[in-house]
Amino acid sequence: MSFVKICNEHARQLKTPPVCASKAKEFVREIDKAGKPSAVICHGPWLLISAGLTKGRTMTSYHTIQNDIRNSGANWIDREMVRDRNWVSSRRPAEIPAFNREMIALFSERKARRKCPSRQITVVTG
What we know:
Elements: E1 4-6, H1 8-13, H2 18-33, E2 38-41, H3 45-50, E3 58-59, H4 66-71, E4 75-76, E5 81-84, E6 87-90, H5 96-115
Parallel strand pairs: 1-2, 2-6, 3-4
Antiparallel strand pairs: 5-6
């Protein structure tokens, strides 16, 4: 697997049963450890929080889970889309066009780095 995309319905389903949640957390940890792209929208950040990956990261989400994100040690900002290193996050399905544009850009950069590993790409969040 080259990337992971988590949306609202997936996040809710992954909360139960515990075996599925455990495997899902392990999976996203492996993706993140490898520096592979992750894209989350709406309540999708819950899985990243549960996996212990959000501390020190900057992201957005649906407003109702902003406290969960902040309490996990991440910086939550109210923007249509946020890019932080290998992560893209967005607030809600109405913002899918911006989310998809940035997600495709992130995946394309990952593909370009695999073809030309000496190339350095720096992404500034803001």
